[in-house]
Amino acid sequence: MSRPVAIGYLRRDVSGTRQPWDEEQIRSLARRFGYDLSRIVAFSHHTDEPHQRLCNVVGRIGATAVFVPSLDHFLTPEEVPTALLTLADIVTVDTHYTYTRSQVS
């Protein structure tokens, strides 16, 4: 039986020198949660329309979850991007919290 597909996401400017550590934490948690991590997408603060580009990757790969080190890696850290949440669950590595697609109103 195949495992569900996930991707990792982070912003290089937020991770800084911790990027290798953040990537390993994403890999580890995805594995523990039973996902096949397809890739880790790393954008910078210079990336145009990062949420839309991330949604494109999720759709193209058919990922059902996105693992992110923390909500700080989104443009508005207080909230999860709704467009992304309509496509995939979002799991934060720092809290192990899963924002599910069913939470979208």
UniProtKB/TrEMBL annotation:
Superkingdom of this protein's organism: Bacteria
UniProt name for this protein: Recombinase family protein
Organism field: Nocardia macrotermitis
